[in-house]
Amino acid sequence: MTPDYDLAVIGGGPAGVAGALTAALAGLGVVLIDAAPRLGGQYFRRPAPGFRAGRPGALHHGLDRFTRQCEDLAGRADVLTGHRVWTVERDGGAVTVRCLAGDREERPRTVTARRLLIAAGAHDRPLPFPGWDLPGVLTPGAAQALLKGDLVVAGRRVVVAGTGPFLLPVAAGLAAAGAHVLGVHEAGGRTGLARHPFLAAGKLAEAFGYGARLARHRVPYRGRQAVVEAHGDGALTHVTIADLDRDWNPVATRTVACDTLACGYGFVAQLDLPVQLGCALRADPYGDLAVTVDAGMRTSVPGVYAAGETTGVGGAVLAEAEGRLAGRAVAADLGRRVPPDPVLSRRRDRLAAFARALGEAYPVRPGWRGWLRDDTPVCRCEEVPLAAVREALELGATDARSVKLLSRAGMGWCQGRMCGYAVSCLAGGSPAGDARAGAGGQGGGEARPGAGPAAFHRPIAQPVRLGDLAGTAAEPPRPGPPGTPAEVSHPPTEG
Amino acid sequence: MSARAHPDFLWRNPDPRPSYDVVIVGGGGHGLATAYYLAENHGITDVAVLEKGWLAGGNMARNTTVIRSNYLWDESAAIYEHSLKLWEGLSAELDYDLMFSQRGVLNLAHSLHDVREGRRRVNANVLNGVDAEWLDADEARAFCPILEVGGHTRHPVLGATLQRRGGIAKHDHVAWGYARGADALGVDLIQGCEVTGFEITGGRVRAVLTSLGRIAAGTVALAAAGHTSVLAARAGLRLPLQSHPLQALVSELLEPVLNCVVMSNAVHVYVSQAHKGELVMGAGIDPYTSYGQRGSFHVIEEQMSAALELFPIFKRVRVVRTWAGIVDVSPDASPIIGTTPVDGLLVNAGWGTGGFKATPGSGWVYADTIASGRPHPLAEPFGLERFTTGALIDEHGAAAVAH
């Protein structure tokens, strides 16, 4: 069977669009698949055209450039927006990408391609604290998505907290949109980047820009502070803000009345698809996982490439550079003449070094565990409180997997995407440590080098309806692996 | 889960000693049950269970927990019924709530052939003292109201066999119950210990070679399910087993909607609703042989399309997770229990798709076989030699293996 395309790109953010465009310009047949109604990913999330937003660029850096890329791409490649990928299969020289399109009435859609570029981005990393499941508490990414994608200001009196440089644009955006931002509380200390002055220089202008905007709206930016508890009866009414010591243990607290809290502790790369495919992962020094790639953004799995946050959280500019590198590598690997671009490679390396430094500058410190109480939900989907996690540990659980078995933490709707980090830490390990455990011993299975954490071993990337699973069966059957006796009838077997 | 009932402790995590009377290879349900009954029934406690991953992390964590004993032939009915009787007292025996729920198992008939086979099976079961009933289509719908039995579907339901004593249990609790029991009786449960080879001299096994070093053993008992053939090959034995991926999936949580276990041979699916509320659905085995714990999507897709004709109410239910176990299937779809050409090396494998339900019975007869050096009477017909004598026990029908 001839694949439909030379290259399928998953993710329509800066990395995916740059990758798809680069490959298309090199003459490849390209399809780009994205879940959102409009290209942009998280960074360039834009309102649907029906919103008639007057000044779309007001909320973004570099939107014009991205818009031009999207327009360019539209004439050269197939762009499938509103398509959610739930699984990817690799069969010999081709990949099969299975998506669901549409909102209420989902339609399955299958795309095949010779090469696959995964640029699926990242999502916020929340940490649990008492009251984090109250309405009115959301992640900075969610607040930003509401603002950029729906032109909705998340609340009137907003507290922004957590760690990482992303808090700044979120607070600045909310303030500019009319919210009263009561403060930005950076748990890691406000001088995180000061330890890397030369690296930081490249981004200083941007940081000063946000700083100036925050100052204009009289938004205080505080270091070594965190929201350690959210209060309210049915909805958020106030938060407890604590001064922290070096390890994030609270030393003094006060309460602030607010109706919205945007709180997040960095980002987690979305690794479901690379893990499905068996791509080798690496752990950052600060314990986060990312896909291992070479200079051409090739993963350890032949024919599969990765760019953007998938290879390590690093922001939109790095993502675009990686996307372009990946597009060039795909084109070269498929026999197109692509002269090397050392400038682009050096640029990518420099930006990646900066991203690593940022990650190191904003580590999550262990003191947050002390913010939790026995009844604080750690896993919200399965309503698993800290006490249940602790009980699992007392019973002998030594990692996230055994905690999950004993407490059901991570077994619900989100399959551990939200609570996975917290559970790993509470179990005394790190997501990377659990990854090694997952790779080392699949009881009864083959240990696969680079296999992801046990919690990630789920062949579907997001919940899919049985009716849609069944619907795809209507497509023509594909041949099994070589040597399959196709006529043999086989059993249902209840084990 | 509000009413959790965990043990006060799980088990020790000992380092292996240099030698044991009995080394059991495989820390899944069967290995743990075998260890427990060796200690409890036979007083043999110088026992190690070696597990290359973690306890009950293989098929024990990857099955759909269906329990029944309505097999066709006398030999199978006897061993599965022995197992079911053990299930009925197991929570008390292990002093641990296994959440064993005898909610009834329906096996659907979709064709006149299925009807004839189903009625025959009911008669055979009754003769063997196994509870079984034949339900016509209306009775089947009365027993399971959400079942679509209409004649306009691709697979109309013409009737069903019902075993009321069949049901489901909580798989983790079963493993933990046996593990805790065996540990308390002195058995060493050793995780992260892979058996890489066997030391065999004079036709007798002397020791196992492991990732944690050499461990001498009087008897070595294999209980590694889908990987048993791999292990046996390391001892120079070629077992008549094929390993296939067997897939299952679990849905989001639902209110109670399905009151029993429903299985269908023709449609290749079986479904129950777990205690917490998620639907657990199993598919047929993937046709190709593999040791990968992941199957092909088209197998699930085709089977779900048929399953939804039986349960149109499930169409919008979302699947949150899929997985696969590795089943080892023998030529007659019956297990292999007993001695091998290597003295002191015993095998218990080939349970294929019936492994979970057989856990207590399998452990019971295997322990007896290990302790006494001759096959337990219930295990005797399942010896390896039947593949040379031809005395096969063909359970392709009742094992829910298509003919």
UniProtKB/TrEMBL annotation, chain A:
Transmembrane segments: 15-36
Domain FAD/NAD(P)-binding intervals: 5-322
Biased composition (Gly residues): 438-447
UniProt keyword terms in alphabetical order: Membrane, Oxidoreductase, Transmembrane, Transmembrane helix
InterPro entries: BFD-like_2Fe2S-bd_dom, BFD-like_2Fe2S-bd_dom_sf, FAD/NAD-bd_sf, FAD/NAD-binding_dom, Metab_Enz_Cyan_OpOx_G3PDH, Opine_Oxase_asu/HCN_bsu
Native source species: Planobispora longispora
Protein name: Oxidase
Molecular function GO labels: oxidoreductase activity
Pfam families, per database record: Fer2_BFD, Pyr_redox_2
Upper taxonomic lineage: Bacteria, Bacillati, Actinomycetota, Actinomycetes, Streptosporangiales
Domain BFD-like [2Fe-2S]-binding: 378-423
Keyword flag Transmembrane helix: yes
Disordered, as annotated region: 432-495
PANTHER family: ANAEROBIC GLYCEROL-3-PHOSPHATE DEHYDROGENASE SUBUNIT B
From TrEMBL, chain B:
Keywords recorded for this protein, A-Z: Cytoplasm, FAD, Flavoprotein, FMN, Nucleotide-binding, Oxidoreductase
Location(s) in or outside the cell: Cytoplasm
This enzyme's EC code(s): 1.5.3.24
UniProt key word Nucleotide-binding: yes
Catalytic activity: sarcosine + (6S)-5,6,7,8-tetrahydrofolate + O2 = (6R)-5,10-methylene-5,6,7,8-tetrahydrofolate + glycine + H2O2; sarcosine + O2 + H2O = formaldehyde + glycine + H2O2
Enzyme class: oxidoreductase
Cofactor dependency: FAD; FMN
InterPro entries per the UniProt record, alphabetical: FAD-dep_OxRdtase, FAD/NAD-bd_sf, Rhodanese-like_dom, SoxB
Similarity comment: Belongs to the SoxB family.
Name of this chain's protein: Sarcosine oxidase subunit beta
Protein source organism: Planobispora longispora
Gene behind this protein: soxB
